[in-house]
């Protein structure tokens, strides 16, 4: 049996990693009786930890929110992850947490053991953090989504799509996904009866949340691949379809799945579906992939490619180099 102080720390750690615990589950994990668990819970309460009792068969416990933040227990890997995350937060995709992150990091750095501080310094020295342009998500929105995911509660929110249309959504939230500078909610849309993904910076959560739901199986295969298949082709202002003159395997090596979806046609060609909120970005991306290509859609991308080609030719001429004849794209 664990010594009392060590057992209390273990009990606190369990309460922090799981939303709800039955008394029997905690007793089994700690190797003690349910009565001992009740006594230990009372001791934690006297130390300021807000532990709520849960009704029902056998009863249970839940670590709640208190008037002030009690001490948290982090293992070595969690402490390193938090420290590195705080160091990257200033250039991240969440609004208004840069200064707050620095203050929190100063507190954490003060108590980090030397071996962990060395790991954090090593990771941080190898990282270059570039400022994130464009829309960023609000921390309160991300927290509300993450809480609903954790507690299996339906989420209701107002949503503005890429074309500016507004709607009210009712979903079963499953995952928060970060893709580059943006956060997405991956959820089951109860209205559409299908899996959907929503940009976190375009939604405003409604209070209260919906009822609890029984989680359904996630889509077959890898969730990252499933998400990537939907992200490039949807949710962007401009969606391009290109015929790439290269095999699907070769093109896929140059185009990450979070940027575009590659569909094989034959041994020498494939279809690339790629999206962006900027035609300038699309033009630069497709020109830099290193393959001949034909633009299938949209037609306005062809004009941007002509503009980009002319700009590059003028730059080459000003530097004394003759431009290559023709261009690398053929509108269809």
Q: Class by helix and strand content?
A: alpha+beta
Give start-end ranges of low-pLDDT stretches: none
Give the overall silhouette.
elongated
Assembly type of the chains comes to: single chain
Fraction of residues in H or I helices: 40-55%
Order of strands, main sheet, comes to: 7-6-5-4-8
Average of pLDDT:
79
Number of helices, counting only DSSP H or I runs of 4 residues or more: 11
Radius of gyration: 26 Å
Topology:
Layout: H1 4-17, E1 21-22, H2 23-30, H3 34-46, E2 51-54, E3 60-63, H4 76-89, H5 98-111, H6 114-125, H7 139-151, E4 155-160, E5 166-179, E6 182-189, E7 194-199, E8 203-205, H8 223-230, E9 238-244, H9 248-254, E10 260-264, E11 270-276, H10 279-288, E12 293-297, H11 299-318
Antiparallel strand pairs: 1-3, 2-3, 4-5, 4-8, 5-6, 6-7, 9-11, 9-12, 10-11
Helix pairs in contact: 1-3, 2-3, 4-5, 4-6, 10-11
Description:
This protein is α+β, with helices and mostly antiparallel strands. It is 40% helix and 21% strand. It has helices spanning 4-17, 23-30, 34-46, 76-89, 98-111, 114-125, 139-151, 223-230, 248-254, 279-288, 299-318, and strands at 21-22, 51-54, 60-63, 155-160, 166-179, 182-189, 194-199, 203-205, 238-244, 260-264, 270-276, 293-297. Strands 7-6-5-4-8 form a five-stranded antiparallel beta sheet. Helix 1 crosses helix 3 (34-46) and helix 10 crosses helix 11 (299-318). The N and C termini lie far apart (75 Å). The mean pLDDT is 79.
